[in-house]
Amino acid sequence: MKKSPPTRADKGRTVRPVAAPSASVDPLLGTQLGEFIIQERIGEGGMGLVYRAVHPLIGKQAAIKILRLEIVSPQQVQRLLVEARAVNAIQHPGIIDIFGFGSLPDGRHYIVMELLQGRALSDFAHAEQRMNLESVIWVMDQMLAALGAAHEAGVVHRDLKPENVFIVEAPRIPTSVKLVDFGIAKLLESRDNPLTTDGYVIGTPNFMAPEQIRGDAVSPATDLYALGLMLFQLLTGERPFQGKSIQVMFAQRDQLPPAPSTRAPGISPALDALVLQLLEKDPSLRPASADAVRERLKRIPLRVPPHPPIALRREHLPVEASSEDDSVTLETKEAVKAIPSPPSPAWWLAPVLMLLCAGAAPGRHLRPALETRACVSPEVARLLWNE
Predict the structure, then answer these.
(1) Separation of alpha carbons 387 and 377, rounded Å
(2) How many other β-carbons are positioned within 10 Å of the β-carbon of residue 359?
(3) Are strands 98-103 and 155-156 parallel, antiparallel or unpaired?
(4) Which of 58, 129, 205, 323 is most buried, most CB within 10 Å of its CB?
(5) Do the annotations mark residue 186 as ligand-binding?
(6) CATH architecture, range 32-114
């Protein structure tokens, strides 16, 4: 077709072609998985997708987590199964409920879980806005009740952090706390799970216990260390160790933590002592159980009864540090060279080189918190670190 000559109005103006409508419609929308029909995507990340779904007859809503096809492997399927089994073994109202598991025709696997309304604890725990003591005690009491039930059921969460603690805020029900994302939980009685055998580093670098960093056996005390890090952050507005994730990991393994009162005024000696005991390098020196920690917190004097926290509106939250601070990549090999190493030559055999496992970026109604985790075997570390 012959083009018409430009008019006077066309001169000096850039004419851009009109983009064709996008044809990329999610094929899963409207699909029925088990008893639920998928209605919208509410989260997406490196490991998979999260959807909101509804039961067509009774109207019950649920969240469905689906692994990406390109990363489906027996290990990832096992991770989903571990999460479902761990949650159902606990049977506690403070643990997110998982009530379905299946696979799509293309081989992707999924789990069906309750849809939560509210915010992750990370929306409440941030710099420049310390949580008041009464809210800290309220959050910790509910967390410890759920954590104690998990430990009694033989489950160690292994990835406790503010993003995995959900403050449920829904109409007509009391505010409550739920622990989510048991995907790397270790069933203490299991011996056939390749993702959680001893000798592997699995967790989120900024909230890992020293024994996790060393690749040693985990136990309920591992969760208590992470809880101590969270308690420190809620009381002071910051974590005890700062820097890149690899630096924080070495600090958590080798350096003594500061007392919370050195970072924020008004923290009692009793709270200082509890936090420092939770952050003991030796797991045997930490409190005996979650229930023991809960009882000590109940003895802390308060001005008013414990109450749920109040989050700032999202647009008022401070700008967070780059996500690079919470991840570990192959480039950290150069950074580690600048960190003084312990004198033992066995340090070079430590499993500190990380492979990324990116997680879902959740929507505002659900936060399963599948964020960056580190996982590597000592054998892989030795191979990749060989100079």
Answers:
(1) 18
(2) 22
(3) unpaired
(4) 205
(5) no
(6) 2-Layer Sandwich (3.30)
- On the CB side of 243, CA atoms within 13 Å amount to 12
Domain borders along the chain are 32-114, 118-311
CA distance 184 to 103: 20
Residue whose tokens read 């599948």: 370
Which fold, 118-311? Transferase(Phosphotransferase); domain 1 (1.10.510)
What are the tokens at 300?
Answer: 């802390």
Give the tens place of pLDDT for each residue, 333-367: 333 333 333 433 333 333 333 323 333 333 333 33
* Share above pLDDT 90 across residues of the chain, in percent, rounded to a whole number: 43
Query: Could you tell me how far CA 2 lies from the centroid of its own chain?
Result: 60
Q: What type of residue sits at position 237?
A: G
Cβ-contact 197, 376 below 8 angstroms: no
Q: Where are the alpha helices (DSSP H) in the chain?
A: 74-90, 133-152, 210-214, 220-236, 245-254, 269-278, 290-298, 332-337, 378-385
Residue 202 and residue 189: Cα distance in Å, rounded? 18
Residues taking part in catalysis: 159
For 176: left if phi > 0, alpha if psi spans -120 to 50, otherwise beta; the answer is: beta
**Reported pTM:** 0.73
Q: Poorest-confidence range of 25-34, 80-89, 146-155?
A: 80-89
Beta strand pairing call for 36-45 and 356-357? unpaired
Is the pLDDT at 220 greater than 70? The verdict is yes
CA–CA gap between residue 164 and residue 171 (Å, rounded): 22
| pLDDT tens per residue across span 222-231 | 999 999 999 9
